[in-house]
Amino acid sequence: MDLWFSEFHAPDVKHSLRVTRHLYSEKSDYQQIDIFDTPEFGRVLALDGNVMLTERDEFIYDEMITHVPMAVHPSIRDVLVIGAGDGGVVRELARYEQVRQIDLVEMDPQVVRACRTYLPENASRLDDSRVHIYYDNALRYIRRCKDQYDLIIVDSTDPFGPSEGYFTREFYGICYNALRGDGIMVNQQGSPFYLHDAEAMTRSHKRIVSTFPISRVYQAHIPTYAAGYWLFGFASKKYHPIEDLNAEKWLSLNLRTEYYTTKLHKGAFYLPAFLERMLREVE
Q: Sheet harboring 230-236: ordered strands across?
């Protein structure tokens, strides 16, 4: 008998993956956690029935949310990561010797435990001496921070349910206060393609624009995410994502990547016409 996992991307659209083994299934205090083995995408992490990552394409998301700000800010030392309990973002950050502290705030300890066991490649740097894991509500944690971080990466789930509070004007204001004078915040902005997702994306962008002096949206193509088309937000107190890109310095680090390049970095901020119009309307 064929076993398939299906995720609704819109009320009339779903994306399905054939499953060879259901490796893990547990209901935590916050969400349903499942990990599957699939022939095409390898192991898949799903939370509340939504795909968070697959072994086949996770590198796209993790590289684009991490290396874009790292190539712009000249001296990132202290980083706060919100969510990302799978460890993929931490893995990418830990490749930078200049980074001295990575604080990971994850709401659900069971996500971290499951990924350590079933997604060890993602979780491979969670035990790095620079990494400090806090199992806490990010809003509560970050309210205690003032001028503390050079970079905040908000790797939350979509703006519905447990992560809804990470897309509010209040949250972005708290992030602003937690950043140093030249700090950067990067967050996942979802997909602009389906109506429900597009409305959530524009709400979030409007709130970020009203909080940070520099705010831009950039894109990546991720096969297992809604419409295969995903957005990130770049918000900064000082640095422009293209004008302040230091390609030579980043290239001198000799970091091997599978998706990110400094040329792609620039191109990711040039958006299709429908999306430019959508963003202009809320700006």
A: 131-135, 101-106, 78-83, 149-155, 179-190, 230-236, 214-220
What the block records as the tokens of 209 is 């624009």
Give the angle subtended at the CA of 40 by the CAs of 38 and 44, to the nearest 5°: 45
Q: Pick the catalytic residue from 78, 103, 155, 158.
A: 155
Q: How far is residue 260's CA from residue 66's CA, in Å, rounded to a whole number?
A: 10
**Residue 155 appears among annotated catalytic residues:** yes
Q: Which two tokens stand for residue 45?
A: 């992490």
Q: Which residues contact 276 (CB under 8 A, 6 or more apart)?
A: none
Dump the DSSP string for 46-106. Answer: EETTEEEEETTTHHHHHHHHHHHHHTTSTT--EEEEEE-TTSHHHHHHTT-TT--EEEEEE
> What tens digit of pLDDT does each residue of 19-33 get?
999 999 999 999 999
State the average pLDDT over residues 82-89: 94
Region for residue 125 given its phi and psi (left: phi exceeds 0; alpha: psi -120 to 50; beta: otherwise): alpha
At 146-155, the pLDDT tens digits run 999 999 999 9
